[in-house]
Amino acid sequence: MAVLLHEADVERLVDMDLVMDAVQAAMRDLGEGNAQNQPRRRVFPPGGVLNVMFASWPGGGVSGLKCYTVAGGKARFLVLVYDLEGVPVGLVEADRMGTFRTGAATGVAARSLTPPGPKTVGVIGTGWQARTQVLALKHALEIRELRVFGRDPERRAAFAREVGATPAESAEAAVSDADVVVTITPSAEPVFEASWVRPGALVVGAGSNFPNRAELPAELVNSADAVVVDQLETARLESGDLLQAGFDFDRAVELGAVLAGKADVKAGQRTVIFESHGLALWDLAAATTVLSAAREQGIGEEVRLF
């Protein structure tokens, strides 16, 4: 029997600490060569986009895929999970879960790529995805000060109240002297200037996964001491931040390699960029946590297939 989980079920079941731990374990396995991830592929039917991405995580006992459409101003996300014998075990409506896995990846990167101690964090973006970026950062770091910026003053103030942050009056005010900077916007152009970033900061570009969109300035990309990507194959296809800057991908390090101890990268003395594009492996990792919780709590609809 497969378990069907709707968005309301996921909202009841999803836990950031569990998702972060699962994402970290899956990424470590990827770095060790014990997991596989295939980048997103897109086709463009009239009026929309169909996206498909898939992965295998033997360490978590699963393989599967995420597919989603964007059409008519609405996105519809589904994650299909198989066990290692090829039996479908889960079908998850995955909009909310997707925000958690994206935030979790930022949290994993932040706690892996920064030194211990309290941090000043600046977040640019106040939308749906920004909330779980902040949630993950709060779970991952000891935060001394959290600043948020978005272009709409009322929305910025409301978001700051919701997440317990200080509303910054400008992108510069959010970024300046921050130890960790996160961008999570739909912008096609850089949302801050390289000169605003403190030397030694960790900068996370989490909003762009199209080659023609760049949130980070080219000057910062090309002057960073290290650039860490979620997956090199994916970055070559999707990283507008790096592609628009003419970045030499031979310089990139994969996050999985850092987690597996095959690469040593640490912000604090060096300026580090983490490019987050979104991997199907993260979706599988997150799905294992909500499906496990669903079975324990008797939540979800059992669906007989085959």
Architecture overview:
With 306 residues, this protein is of the alpha/beta class. The protein is 36% helix and 28% strand. A hairpin with a 2-residue loop joins strand 4 and strand 5. The mean pLDDT is 97.
List the topology elements.
Elements lengths: L1 E4 L1 H7 L2 H16 L4 E8 L4 E10 L4 E10 L2 E10 L4 E6 L1 H19 L5 E6 L3 H13 L2 E7 L3 H11 L2 E2 L3 H5 L4 E4 L18 E4 L12 H6 L2 E4 L2 H7 L1 H4 L8 E3 H5 L12 E4 L4 H18 L3 E3 L3
Parallel strand pairs: 1-6, 7-8, 7-10, 8-9, 10-11, 11-14, 12-13, 12-14
Antiparallel strand pairs: 1-15, 2-3, 3-4, 4-5, 5-6
Helix pairs in contact: 2-3, 2-11, 3-4, 3-11
Structural classification: alpha/beta
Distinct helical segment count: 11
Most strands sheet: 8 strands, parallel
Please tally the β strands and state the result.
15
Largest beta sheet: strand ordering: 9-8-7-10-11-14-12-13
Question: Are there runs of 5+ residues with pLDDT below 50, and where?
Answer: none
The proportion of residues in beta strands is: 25-35%
The whole-number mean of residue pLDDT values reads 97
Task: Evaluate the radius of gyration.
Answer: 19 Å
Summarize the structure.
By secondary structure, this protein is an alpha/beta fold.
Record keyword descriptors for this entry.
alpha/beta
